[in-house]
Design goal:
Blueprint (H helix, E strand, L loop, with lengths): L3 E6 L7 H14 L4 E6 L1 H4 L6 H18 L7 E4 L5 H10 L4 H5 L2 H8 L6 H15 L5 E3 L5 H18 L7 E3 L34 H9 L16 H14 L3 H8 L4 H27 L2 H30 L7
Parallel strand pairs: 1-2, 2-3, 4-5
Helix pairs in contact: 3-12, 4-7, 4-13, 7-8, 9-12, 10-12
The structure holds tryptophanyl-5'AMP.
The site of tryptophanyl-5'AMP (TYM) has 26 residues, from strand 1, helix 1 and helix 7.
Amino acid sequence: MTPRVLSGIQPSGNLHIGNYLGALGNWVKMQHDYESIFCIVDLHAITVYQKPEELRAKVREIAALFLAAGIDPQHSRIVVQSTVAAHSELAWLLTCVTPMGWLERMTQFKAKAAAQESVGDGLFQYPVLMAADILLYQANIVPVGEDQMQHLELARDIAQRFNSLYGETFTMPATRLPLVGARVMGLDDPTAKMSKSATGSGHAVALLDPPATIKKTIMRATTDSNPGVDFETMGPGVQNLLNIFQAFSDWTNDQMKAHFTGMRYGDLKKQVTEMTISKLEPIQKRYAEIVADPGYLEGIIRAGADAVRPTADATVRLVKERMGIYTETA
Ligand code: TYM
């Protein structure tokens, strides 16, 4: 059987080059080696308040960006999480085997909860829903950025616990990080991860930013007080710019060192800007074509859900049977 890949992105905020280098771009490269499912996880997005009309538009925007970035709809399934009810159903079944202590340890929960006045239960349950996304399809490989590693460990823990309580049911999913680009940092503050929710210009390069904005953001990026690139002593800002260049270009470490050692920061930034624009421009062009035909996009979203629903439903049926939940026998 061909191994299965599954991953997802939340339709909240603007997708940025961190999402692309850590996840989406990597999916595009690996999709044909596997049976691939890529989800737009709208049920995750509502764990913090989303304006309804914005959420509705975002789901379509992200689906279009998946296609524009090179997800092949003839091969890979693009699934809007909420359109396959089994995601929610399995999440509840798994909630019942997940100790609260495991969820209390999640660093993303702690960080997000600290930033909210009132913390919804959904934010707490978030990683269980993520485990459900993965286990529902018995995914073998989950390509994500570094910030999702703890959630994936939890998904494996939940799978293991379920298997030991009720018998072998779930495949253990492996985490797959990109070699470079697993953690792109904020351009304004290279000690913090580039994030969709962080506002303020200068922080992130969004995939749909026009070239002039990209240039402005990168040229203003935080560096350090060295006179030029020094691979031994560079600070996190310079390291981040080099990482971005390397992740886009696929250059080797040796190529990077030979080319950038000693380069002044103004020139480094110019080259990172040019590289970024050259990679994003074709995506933006395709994006404009795709959104001009909403019927096409709707068709792909519908076909994605229709294709995966039988697998998802079969898993829920099996899980219910294992747990002794009422299932029709005749
Ligand atoms: P989300 O929407 O926050 O991010 C989507 C993907 O982008 C990666 N990423 C980054 N990679 C490198 N540098 C960064 N600064 C950066 N920021 C984000 C993330 O690691 C992720 O791969 N919980 C998930 C969505 C999800 C999911 C799933 C993922 C729901 N169900 C099942 C995999 C499998 C999330 O919030 O990702």
